[in-house]
Design a protein that fits this description.
Blueprint: E1 13-16, H1 21-32, E2 36-42, H2 55-59, E3 63-67, H3 72-84, E4 87-90, H4 95-98, E5 110-115, H5 128-135, H6 137-140, H7 155-178, E6 183-187, H8 188-195, H9 200-204, E7 222-226, E8 231-235, H10 239-249, H11 253-256, H12 263-268, H13 270-281, H14 286-295, E9 299-302, H15 313-318, E10 321-325, E11 332-336, H16 360-365, E12 390-394, H17 399-409, E13 413-418, E14 431-432, E15 435-436, H18 437-442, E16 446-450, H19 456-467, E17 471-474, H20 480-483, H21 488-494, E18 499-504, H22 519-525, H23 528-531, H24 545-568, E19 572-573, E20 576-577, H25 578-585, E21 600-603, E22 606-610, H26 618-621, H27 626-635, E23 640-642, H28 646-650, H29 653-658, E24 661-665, E25 671-675, E26 679-682, E27 696-697
Parallel strand pairs: 1-2, 1-4, 2-3, 4-5, 5-6, 12-13, 12-17, 13-16, 16-27, 17-18, 18-19, 18-20
Antiparallel strand pairs: 6-26, 7-8, 8-9, 10-11, 14-15, 21-22, 22-23, 24-25
InterPro entries: CoA-transferase_III_domain, CoA-Trfase_fam_III, CoA-Trfase_III_dom3_sf, CoA-Trfase_III_dom_1_sf
Keywords: Transferase
GO molecular function, one term: CoA-transferase activity
Length: 698
């Protein structure tokens, strides 16, 4: 028997006060996993900022309590809930929280606080767009000859919310083991720098990366290409992929050309590679290109408009968009399905969207029993949340490696199993002492093993690993393990209590059962590129948003399933789809017309983004630096934010104060940079960062 998602956190009470989107996202994840989440909202509509701009989206599946800070009855009920809560979600730099000062939160509750730049930052209320600009994320999005683009999809708020949800469940494990409530901090800025991982290796080598449009900083071909009837996204990340494409063209000689032989060579000759691909795509329609690429085991997809998203074949097949009833009416509205999918789980009914204050009486009458009572702290301090958990990772590039890296930080023993040729990311330049910086950043805290799973001996050893493991996470092409004789049934027969988490582009239950996927293809096929379009041109996020969000959702799902297994002994088989996750992230933009323009103004050394209203003396700004322009506009009543490059953000005083980058010595005694977690949790803390161990035979 396997667990189902809406039981994982049953019995846990969460009070969601924070007004940031990230607090709403975190509460939604916890609610989808079975927790009772109280959605605290202002009376009489109140503020319409942050998550309240999409109130129904973030209230769904939760219990509504409307409060006024001045109302004694409201405060009394809210404080009663806070004294019984297991988890409290806040956003201390946001307006709505500011109206609820000095609330009596139980000493036995874990508090998770979401902010833009960290709890000690002076400026309150910084927006998603502000942080994208200050962190360098906007600098990576846009076209080479245009300004930076602050993406309309709130990728950093969602990232912070999902990281926070995982931290909340890790805190429950710490509370159970050591009796200690936790204090969790998650900032959008720290999430942003973690999201920039594929750009950081160049920065560490002294190169400040620019904008590549729909390209990839370390790989080619990887771009949007014109076809006879539209646009195609095509992604190639390894030498094998290039060889297959050259064979498809009937030009195997290109695979041996010195300009294109290795990944780094093709990235250096990006323009020539794109010209070769464009010549081929323009001779075919989009459907033919996708069919031929898929037949060769290569990743490609069409760019789907938001208003056509419900009609996309896999979105329809998986029921990623469902009908929900608008609160207080009979009107049906499009709504994203839960991204938490377990095998053999029936599609849950649409969540109830409560009218404001609908649950006041129920909340007043229900007796909640907190996980910790009286704030007791037994003598078991210092134990990490996943200290006794063993994780097996078969991952490449970003998604599964990101998930396993963060599980290692929570204390898990992570064993990364690679083919004899190694993870393809080991070849991604730049290198330090023969090790890819990208690989080192993506795989800290792990022990790496190499094995031939196609050999009887290698397969036997792998089965032995599974027998003693708690978690298996992988992002292989669907069906890869089954082809080795390890389908889901056999895996669960070997270890019935296993938490098995495959992360795929389109899901295991899919209209595209064997189709490979990369981040950019999923962005295209989820409406995300259309949502972020600039002047009618679809645009991908510069950061690999679908990759890192797939990994983040997997962190949360695994932690929630482990929490449930602790009580029931039940294993879980997931069916996580990057497309489901990306569709969910665009939901706040459904049915809305994107705002025109970005307010980007050119300066002598880059760009600033001006707030609404007329900009005085705009031409004069071109002779100023960004900082001078910000001060100039502030004197004239116009707020502006400078667009920082990746290098500027990484080396900024704020990043240094937060300690996001730490240097570790490799086996040659040379420094290798490592990224800290965007999650801060005390008093338990996280495991110290270490470089991935040298690869050894399984």
């Amino acid at each position: 028997m396997e667990s189902i998602s809406d039981e994982w956190l049953a019995g846990r009470l969460v009070v969601e006060i924070g007004g940031r989107v990230s607090a709403g996202v975190c509460g939604t994840m916890l609610a989808q996993a079975g927790a009772t989440v109280v959605f605290v909202e202002p009376r009489d509509g109140g503020t319409r900022t942050g998550k309240f701009c999409s109130r129904d989206l973030f209230a769904a599946g939760k219990r509504s309590l409307a409060v006024s800070p001045e109302n004694a009855e409201d405060r009394a009920l809210l404080e009663r809930l806070l004294r019984r809560a297991d988890l409290v979600l806040t956003s201390s730099d946001w307006d709505f929280d500011g109206g609820l000062p000095a609330l009596d939160i139980s000493a036995s509750a874990t508090v998770c606080n979401f902010t833009a730049m960290g709890v000690d930052h002076d400026e309150r209320g910084l927006s998603e767009a502000d942080v994208q600009l200050l962190s360098g994320v906007a600098h990576t999005s846009g076209f080479p000859d245009g300004p930076p683009v602050a993406l309309r999809v709130p990728i950093l708020e969602y990232s912070a919310g999902v990281y926070g949800a995982g931290a909340c469940v890790a805190a429950l494990a710490a509370m159970r083991a050591a009796g200690q409530p936790q204090r969790i901090e998650v900032s959008l800025f720290e999430c942003a720098l973690n999201a920039l991982l594929s750009f950081l290796p160049s920065v560490f080598q002294g190169v400040d990366p620019g904008r590549l449009g729909n390209g990839h900083p370390m790989s080619a071909p990887w771009n949007a290409y014109r076809t006879k009837d539209g646009w195609l996204l095509f992604c190639s990340a390894s030498d094998v992929h290039w060889q297959r494409f050259c064979a498809l063209l009937g030009r195997p000689d290109l695979a041996e050309d010195e300009r294109f032989r290795r990944v780094a060579d093709r990235a250096h000759h990006r323009g020539e590679v794109d010209a070769i691909v464009s010549q081929w795509t323009q001779d075919h329609d989009t459907a033919t290109c996708i069919r031929l690429l898929s037949g060769a085991g290569l990743a490609g997809g069409e760019i789907v408009p938001l208003d056509k998203l419900k009609e996309e074949a896999n979105v329809r097949h998986r029921g990623a968009i469902i009908a929900a009833t608008a609160p207080g009416t009979e009107r049906q509205m499009d709504f994203p399905q839960s991204v938490l999918r377990a095998r053999n789980e029936n599609v849950p009914p649409p969540p109830v969207i409560p009218v404001p204050d609908a649950d006041r009486a129920w909340l007043a009458d229900t007796e909640f029993v907190p996980m910790l009572q009286g704030g007791q702290i037994p003598d078991a301090a210092g134990r990490l949340p996943l200290e006794s958990v063993r994780v097996i990772e078969i991952g490449q590039f970003t998604t599964a490696p990101l998930c396993a890296r963060h599980l290692a930080m929570y204390g898990a023993d992570v064993m990364k199993v690679e083919p004899l040729s190694g993870d393809a990311a080991r070849e991604w330049a730049p290198m330090v002492d023969g090790l890819s910086l990208f690989f080192a950043l993506s795989n800290s805290g792990k022990t790496c093993y190499k094995a031939d799973l196609k050999s009887p001996d290698g397969l036997k050893k792998f089965k032995d690993l599974i027998r003693g493991a708690d978690v298996l996470v992988e992002n292989m092409k669907p069906g890869s393990l089954a082809a080795l004789g390890l389908d889901v049934e056999k895996l669960m027969a070997i270890n019935p209590s296993l938490i098995y988490c495959p992360i795929t582009g389109f899901g295991n239950v899919s209209a595209y059962p064997s189709r490979p996927a990369f981040d950019t293809v999923v962005q295209a096929m989820s409406g995300m590129m259309d949502a972020n379009a600039v002047d009618g041109m679809p645009l991908k996020a510069g950061v690999s948003v679908c990759d890192f969000m797939g990994g983040e959702v997997a962190i949360f799902a695994i932690l929630a399933a482990l929490h449930h297994r602790e009580r029931t002994g039940l294993g879980t088989v997931f069916d996580l789809s990057m497309q489901d996750i990306a569709v969910w992230m665009t939901a706040s933009m459904w049915g809305k017309r994107p705002a025109e323009g970005q307010g980007m103004l050119r300066c002598r050394d880059g760009y600033v983004r001006a707030g609404s209203g007329l900009v005085p003396e705009a031409e004069a700004l071109e002779r100023m630096t960004r900082d001078e322009a910000v001060a100039f506009l502030a004197e004239r009543g116009v707020r502006a934010v400078p667009a920082r490059s990746v290098a500027e953000a990484l080396h900024s005083p704020r990043a240094k104060a937060l300690g996001l980058v730490r240097m570790e010595k490799n086996r040659h005694g040379n420094d290798m940079p490592q990224l800290a977690s965007p999650v801060r949790m005390s008093p338990t803390g996280l495991r110290s960062i270490r470089l991935p161990e040298a690869t050894i035979d399984l």
